[in-house]
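Q: Is it fine to ask for two folds in a single conversation?
A: Yes, each is treated on its own. Send the first.
Q: Here.
A: Result:
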Amino acid sequence: MPDVEGFDEFYRGSRQRLLGFVYVLTGNLAEAQDAVQEAYIRAWQRWSTVSGYEDPEAWTRVVATRIAVSRWRSLRSRARAYLRHGAVETVPPPGTETVEVVAALRRLPEEQRTAIALYYLLGMPVAEVARETDAPVGTVKARLSRGRAALAGLLAVSDLGEAADA
């Protein structure tokens, strides 16, 4: 059983110093908080060993520093790749039809929406949708049928509403 009280005391006594140290290294409070949190998680996972060290805070500080440096290197690598390969092409926003279909899908019950997404968007056969949703094949067919009918009604109402406004 880990020494919960010992770790809690260690954490409370060292967290501010460690966060301040890593913040000075990174210059970014959010990055520092993430690195310190990860270091404390690792210290907790190895607390039976770390607590026996002469200076557990030093071990945790080294771990937090390595995590922060690793993240910094990763960001630097991404920046270099960006400079080498250029910006990612912008993706055009969805068309109004897509927005209307998504809005209509959101109004369907979850079971129908899931069946429709698996069947039409992922192209799964009905039997596979049944396995994935843990429902009988007949139930999946009913959900698809009811979902299509509901979508047709929701999309037709949307079109009629627009026509009345014009």
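Q: Second one now.
A: Result:
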Amino acid sequence: MLSVKHLLGIKYLNREDIALILQTADTFLDVINRPIKKVPSLRDITIVNLFFENSTRTRLSFELAEKRLSADTLNFTASSSSVSKGETLIDTVNNILSMKVDMVVMRHPQAGAAHFLSEQVDSIIVNAGDGAHEHPTQALLDAFSIKRKLGSVEGKKVVIVGDILHSRVALSNIFCLQKLGAEVAVCGPPTLIPRHIESLGVRVETNLRKALEWCDVANMLRIQLERQDIKYFPSLREYSSLYGLNAAYLESLSKEIVIMHPGPINRGIEISSDVADGPHSIILDQVENGVAVRMAVLYLLAGRQPE
């Protein structure tokens, strides 16, 4: 049983929680690879997917995970709801919960929205990304993917490359990987690395080659232009020349490393197609593993009685 009622962020999980989620995900990965891919585990549970931000991969992954567990699902997008007419978050959620919904999977552009909601409504909340704060299920599936590929996370060296400043994936990954015993570094232009990030116990590197020669795994993040209100570097072309990864660059390293990406990929900017689709990449494995991890999260949270 998990030590938390909600999944609001990796920050609130302990190592045992993470280990239990990954262990349970192993079981569900077997389920989704067999001919009959459904189990009746959440047959009596109703889950609403509440997305106030655009999403494709995360929303579809949660929907598929819910269907694989036989849950009843509702899908909500803010652009086609009364939110566009001025309805508040609390009113929206309370209206949905009055329909006897057990769990809410929410993505919201404001950091802390999931935590706020968990204090206002009597339902299990799963954070599917809140602003530039956290994206816990992405970090869990990334850790699960590393474990599946390399046998364990403990002792591995992982570098997160790109727009660290605006990335909820980066923060959740730092928390998750460190709790599992990995060494973590961040790499990118100085303008895209948060001040004082060293206080989280991570290495900071602005030279991509040094970072890649150090690591076992490189998690390549996209530049999040939609969250940038000023220019943080001269041009995408210059960024790509300094921090973009292509096959020739990868082959010039002194060792083989594993390449990851949370998506969506900006091909030709942070990563080239020959790397994304190449033998070092586990990007498609991450997508498959994401369904199993989200099944594990929903299953374990539903199994805990509300406090």
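Q: Anything structural to flag on that second result?
A: Two points. The chain has a mean pLDDT of 91. The longest strand covers residues 124-130.
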